[in-house]
Each structure stands twice: as structure tokens, then as C-alpha cells.
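User: Could you check the structure of this?
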Amino acid sequence: MKKVISFFNRIMQRYLPDPFLFVIILTFVVFALGLIFTNSGPVDMVKYWGGGFWGLLAFSMQMVLVLVTGHVLASSPIFKRFLGSLASTAKSPGSAIIIVTIVSIIASWINWGFGLVIGALFAKELAKRVENVDYRLLIASAYSGFVVWHGGFSGSIPLTIATDGHFTENLIGVIPTDQTIFAPFNVVIIAALFITLPLLNRFMMPSKDETITVDPVLLEDPSSFQAATIEKAPLTPAERLENSWIISLFVSGMGLFFLFFYFADNGFKLNLDIVNFLFLFLGILFHWRPKLFLEAVMNAVKGASGIIVQFPFYAGIMGMMTASGLAAVMSEAFVNISNEHTFHFFAFLSAGIVNIFVPSGGGQWAVQAPIMLEAALALDVSVARTAMAVAWGDAWTNMIQPFWALPALAIAGLKAKDIMGFCVIVLFMSGIIISLAFLLL
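Assistant: Sure, the predicted C-alpha cells are below.
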């Protein structure tokens, strides 16, 4: 295992470019594939690319807020103590890897946005307290738990088809979550990954001479040292407002009261907006003074540049994939070689490939659903399993897709090539487990 990991780490360090260059290369690849496999010409592909370029603006802002609000919350004294006490349960590098993987899986299963942030933040706290733990593997382990998200409570595809009025209702009706998220085959996949992922990550620990650690001082946020720097000299009226705990208490109280009524009306139903809302107002409350909160925000925003610049390019790629029909061509290729026994397996594989170019669960389902569901009906196989096969394919190749790793990497201060060698192994192992589930169960 150590030799395999060392090989993949060397490959990634040498050949994997910065995520921005990766998305540029991906743009050219999709452009070329569109010319080869569809009836689109160069002018058409450019129009599709430009037309979709700003299609993820709202989602991009949500992801920036996931990063910023999570970072702000983690830098607050109360939350740092909570994460620190949880991290203190790890007594060795091996136990740190196992614990962060378990926490990440549970958090991602509850809500994908919550899992992305909490896993990376917890990994940083572990790196501060556990000596000789490989920082790259620690962050990779935190990210590896994200592979379960589409089989959990926030899975966009199973939740979409369980909602009245969804766009394929006339084809398949409304599919309740007891046939998707809580179906026995899906529970088996989650359980298998919950057992094997922590052990796999533990076995991937590099040898002592290849272990890369980080100085705990470098992981401290500047905002964490600011509680003692509040001015003691006479304050101006404006400075009194900036340092007023009463303002923080009242505004955070309003936000938390809203969340109380929201959960009372909707149950424990999390979405990205609610996660951001919770993180934001807990951050305001836990930093206690507006000035300290704003300083924490300024420090957190520095890590959001990758999301701001790269997500529009992914939106442009999605525009080319969908408008040219290239995503449909890829899906149909797998459908054509399927039968009633292998269909769900090939649906899973096709979704994994499409996800590399269309890294959005909802966007991918909009492209693949008409093809996959009609094929499932023609072969007389379960449409619920078909939807989950696409969902798991979407989650699976996120392990090698920098799009989703950007928030975790920004929190950790690492580059994609630092963790992708480990993530490739997770991709292979999780792919085998999920494939066997769809072939045998």
C-alpha cells in the first residue's frame, strides 16, 4: 500500500496542474469532444460555452459563503474549544485519520455542505494536536467522507424525485425516499463505506520518512489572537458600536429564532442556505463583538479566490455539455451496451464520467434523467435504483474532481495535487464497493 500511495503521490505532484489550469484544460477537452461527437460546430460550441458561463453564479455565492461562514465559525473561541476537545480524543496519527474520516462521513451523510466544511476544520484541529500525522492524508481523509453525500439526507437526486411536480413526474411519478435513501441496497453501500473508508485511510499512512507534517503555529488564524487586542483607550461612538456585544447578541438572536421556527415547521431539513444561515449567525454570536467577527470574515475571504474564479468556467463547460448534447451522447453509449442485469452498473459508470464535466448533482440529473429513466422503463428495471445509480456516480468521481475539493483545500491551505494521490485510491476502493452493490444486491 505504501508503494502504491507513493507512486500516485509522485504522479499527482508531477502532472496534476493547479485547479484553475485543470478547468481550462477540461474546457478545451469538452470543446473538442463536442466537435467530434455532436453536430455542433466551433461557433456553436463557443456560444454554448459563453451562454452557460454565468449559470452558476447563485451556487458560486453559496459555496463562497460555505467557506467563509464555516471558517469564521471555526475561528471563534467557543467553537475552537469544541473542535479541540473532540480532537483531543485522538492519541496517535492512526487514530486521528480514523476519527476525521468517521466525522466527515457522518457530517456529509447529514448534509453535503456541512460535511465539506466540518471535515476540513476538524482535520486542522487534529493537525495542531497530534504529532507526526501526515497533513495531506489528514485533509484527504476529511474529504473522502464526501463520497457518501448523494446517498444521504441531502442527496439532490433522491430528494428531487420525491418532490411533487418534479420534471420527470409524468414519466416515473413520485418516488418516496424509502425506495432510494433508505432502501436496503443504499443502506448497505453507506455501511460498507463507513467501515472500509476509515480503515483504508489508516492503511494509507506513509512511512516516517515520507510523512509531511505542518507546524501547528501555521494553522492558527490571525483572528484567533484578536480577543486581547480590543482597544482599552476611550472609544469613539463608532468604535463603541464596533465593539458592542449587545449588537451581536440581538442580531444573532434574530437569526437563531428564525432557525427555531424553521426547524419547527420543516423538521430537521437542511439545505445549503440553512447551513450557511446557521454558520453565519453562530459566527456572529461566538465572536461576540462585531469588530472581531468582521476581522474573522476578512481572514476567511482570502481563501475563496479559487471558487470565485473557477466556478464560472465549470458553468461554461456544463453549458457546452448540455446544449451540444454531448452529455446525452455519453449516457446513450452506456445504455446501448446494457441489459437488465448490468444496466444500473453502467448507469453508475456513465454518471461518474459525466460528473467530471458536469460537477453538479442537480444539473447532471437534468441531463441524464430523460435518457436513463426511459431506458430503465424499456428494460423493466427499477427506476428508483436507476436514480440512485446516477446519484452514486455523481458522488463517486468527486474524489478526483477539484471542483468540490476547493472549499476544503482553501481551509487547509493545500493544493489539489497534495491530496489527489490519496483520493485516487479512495476512488478505486469506493468504486468497487458501489459497483458490486449494483451488480449483486
